[in-house]
Every structure is written in structure tokens, then in C-alpha cells.
């Protein structure tokens, strides 16, 4: 590549930042209408978000800069859109997440759920998936993957090591090899003790050093040469064989590591669909929906959970079957066979999980308080306005609609800063109890967990939505999309889902939903369809970023462990993307119809009667 082109490539982001607004600037200068000027800002922000030429949160400040300059919104009005009810809800949720992570409650929940499922490799993977999915309902997808993946990696590596030792023992006993490292300790009992040199085992062990005898390692290597010669992963001859290249005994072990890693990446994303607070795209949708349609009471924590929990369970099971078939081959009879004896692999994995759980010790006071507050927060969300019975919000009849999910989140979130973490601390001489007031979480710990970039990004999306509404751009888009009303509604929904699923693979999920919501809402109004019919499935499909390592943070975290190639993730993710869109289409066509009354155009949505005059060509 010539030096000039290399120089351009090195500064490609700077060129994009400078050239994008300059090349688009003649359009608003020639067509001097508010709709065109707002469209100019929307295009510039969308290009920057999709290309990530600037950090997403930095790009989110552009509407605050450009709307006042074009006379679309005054600066004070734009600034007011950057902090909404969403931010208060997120604050309470992050208080809960901070305490869960600080006191290791997440690890206890994950290990306990895996122990309940069983230790068969297939069932073990399902247990990890539902554990990660459950945690992802309440924590961020990124935090869930980062917390669960080290446990999965430790279990996988321990299974490989333990099974290798067992196979070596069986090979040596059948071949008549006398290996002192594998004999029982009769000599030690007779006083003939022997010191054995120990060395670390390669592979991740979650902070603990795993050791075994060198002579055992020699037997294992001998067995690997005999038993796994057909499946051993090839290493380039010109390079010396490093310890990292011996992570897998054979192809089956490598497939197990791939499948377990992908199951965590995908379940961390799928689990977040279940709750309004589970992922940022759900929160952005809820806030923008309530801002655009303040008269609607259809979307709250309870209705969203009831609608999405079947989607999550169905998609989780289908993903498990897909990964099983793709990497192991799905043997139905073997999976569901009753009364079969545990294999050495299953016994090894059970021991690792049990040891990890025992390291946590008995449940602590801090974990109990966090769990109680966690349950109370969920109950308050569910019972605020369940729909089929009066909720606790009816206790304030004079202030209907004043209390939202953020009210409950803030109430419980503040308690984390009030309740003492150590209600009693014994004195240094062990003579008397002295009280030292330390809350469950501190402000510094909260700040470390608070995703301020997401807060700013969401605020930028609200500013864009407000600008589109005030300038008339949303109404113009709606009028231009009126011809789509001739298509069947299911085809409009399917096309919208496919578009956002494709875009979210190369753009961040929050940026994608922020760009498309102001477009899809006017589309639904233009074709006289309940906006929820289009907005709910497209919001869910925005989270289906399964194809690439860079598509979302959980994918990147799993990919960083080195088990996967890009094509592994593409093959697995493509199937789950297709299944995800189909399951969402099934949901919006069946149980969502009576739940949200989708077959009728709601009274809280505006009625567009005729196209307005506009100078936009």
C-alpha cells in the first residue's frame, strides 16, 4: 500500500468526522426548512454512531450543539431532554447490581442453579445458560458475561485435566505400564515416602493454581499421542509447541470449550430481553414510548415481563439445542436417559462446581440483605400496576401516574446507602463490640458500576426524538411511508425486524434502537397500526447481535478467551438470529395480541388524516 493511502487509512476517522458534515451541509443550506435541517442533524449523528468515528456518548452531544444553531430547539429545551425518568430507574438498578457484585451474590446464584441442573455436559451447559440468563435480567449483559465466564472456563479446563488423568490411568493399566505416580500410597503407609515435584497445569483456573504430578503428565502425553492422534489440533511446524497450544486433548474438548463459551455470550443477551431493566435497548424503548405516547399505560415492568418470559425461555432452549447439535451432535436418547451412571467427565465437573460453591462459605449477612432488597424491588415493580388487579400505585388516588418503576427503584436503591454492611464489629481485644458504620455500597463503588456513557447516549436519543417531533420530520416520514399500509402488517413487522437485526451487527444496540424508534413510530401511525405492533418486536430484535465478536460486549468477552474463531461465532450466531426473529414474530402474532390489544388502533396514538404540505421533495 502506498504511503499516501496508509496515511489516509490511519486518519480515516478524522476524515469521516470532517467530511461527513461538510458534504451533507449543502442540503440544509439549499432547502431551508426545519424538516431538512433536522434530517441533516439526524444523518450526521447516525453516521457517527454507526461508524463510531467518535465515542458514542460524545456523538450524543451533537444534537445539543446543532439544534440551537439551526433554530429547531432552544438550548434549555434540548438540555432538558438529556435527563429523564429512565436515568432514575437506571440509578436504582445499578445500586442493586453494585451490591450483588460486591458481595458475590451473583456467583452463589449461578453455582447453585448449575448444581440443581446436573453435571452432564449438555445439562451443564443448559444450567450455565439459565444462570447467566437469570442474572442478565437484573444486571447488564456485559457484567453477567464477565462474571459467569471465568466460572465456565475453570470448569471446562478442570474437566479436560481430570479426564486426561483418568484416560491415562486406564491406558497404563491396560498396557501393563508400571507408573508410580498412578499407584496407591502403600509405600507411604510403609514409611517409604516420596516427594513428587509439582508443576502448574496450563489453562485458566479462576485464580487458583492446579497441580499434578510430572510423571502423571508424561503418561497423559503418551496417551494423547495414541488416542487423540486423529483429532489433535495441528500446530505449525516452524513454531515451537508452547504450553498454550496444549489446552485441548482432542477435537471434542475444543468443541466443548467453544459451545460453553457461546452459550454464555448468547444467554447473557437473551436473558436481558425479559425485563425492562435487563438491557439498555428495552429502557430506551420504554422511555421514548412513554415520552411520545404519555397516555398509554400498556408498557410497564409486569406486562413486559409476562410478554417476554416465554420468548426468553423458548429462545434459550432452542439456542441450547442448536449449540448442542452444532458442536456435539444432539443425541436425544442419551441426553434424556434415566438412571445412567455418571462419567468421569461429569464427576470432575461436579467436583469443580461443588468446590467453587464451598469456597463461598455460608451465606453472609450482606448477601441476605441484598437478596431481600432484590426481591422487594422485583415485587414492587410487578405490583405497581399489574393490570388484572389494582396495584400499589392506587394507594395514591390523587396522584395517578405520578409513581413509576423508577420510584420503586430509587426507594430500594437508597437503602443500599443506608443499611450498614457490618452492624456489629468486635473490638480489637475481643472484649466488647464496637459499631463502625459502613453502608452496603459506597458512592465510589456505585460510580465504578454506573454506565455514564449509556446515560449520555440515551439522552442524545431523546434529544433527537424531540427534535424530529418539533421540526415536523417525524410527520413527514409518516406521510411518505403511508403506501406501506397496503402490505400485510406481518410483512411490515418482519421487514423492520430484519433491518434492525442486520444493522445492530455492525452498530451498537443502543445506537440502533435510538435511530430507528423515531422512524418506526411514525410508520405505525401512518399505516394506522397500533405502534406496539411494530415497536415491541423491533426493540427485541435490536438485541440480536450474535454474529460477530464486535457486535456486543458479551461476544467480545467470550471471544477473548481464545477458544473461538470468527467463523465459529458467525455459524452459530446466524442460526440464533433466525430463530430469534421467528420466535419474536410468533409472540407478536399470538399472545401479544390480546395482551396489548394490537388489533385495534389505540386512542392514545395520534390520528394522521392527510399529508401536510412540505417543501421536502
Rg over CA atoms: 28 Å
Number of helices: 29
Overall pLDDT metric: 77
Uncertain parts? 176-245, 427-432, 610-617
- What is the number of E strands? 4
Strand order of the largest sheet: 1-2
Structural class: mainly alpha
- Ends apart, CA distance between termini: 43 Å
Describe this structure in words.
With 617 residues, the protein is mainly α. 64% of the residues lie in helices and 2% in strands. The protein has 29 helices and four strands. The chain has a two-stranded antiparallel sheet. The longest helix is centred in the first third of the chain and has 35 residues, at 141-175. It is globular, with a radius of gyration of 28 Å. The model is unreliable at 176-245, 427-432 and 610-617 (pLDDT under 50). It comes from Xenopus laevis. Its main location: membrane. It is a multi-pass membrane protein. One of its GO terms (molecular function) is sodium:sulfate symporter activity. One of its GO terms (cellular component) is plasma membrane.
Quick overview of this protein structure:
It is found in: Membrane. The protein contains 29 helices and 4 strands.
Give the topology, please:
Elements: H1 3-10, H2 12-24, H3 26-30, H4 34-51, H5 56-59, H6 62-70, H7 75-80, H8 85-102, H9 105-117, H10 121-138, H11 141-175, H12 186-189, E1 198-200, E2 211-213, H13 214-227, H14 251-271, H15 280-292, H16 301-327, H17 332-335, H18 344-359, H19 365-383, H20 405-416, E3 425-426, E4 433-434, H21 443-449, H22 452-471, H23 473-480, H24 489-503, H25 509-526, H26 531-541, H27 553-559, H28 566-589, H29 592-596
Antiparallel strand pairs: 1-2, 3-4
Helix pairs in contact: 2-4, 4-6, 4-22, 6-22, 8-20, 9-10, 9-18, 10-11, 10-14, 10-16, 11-13, 11-14, 11-18, 11-27, 14-16, 14-27, 15-25, 16-28, 19-20, 22-25, 23-25, 24-26, 24-28, 25-26, 26-28
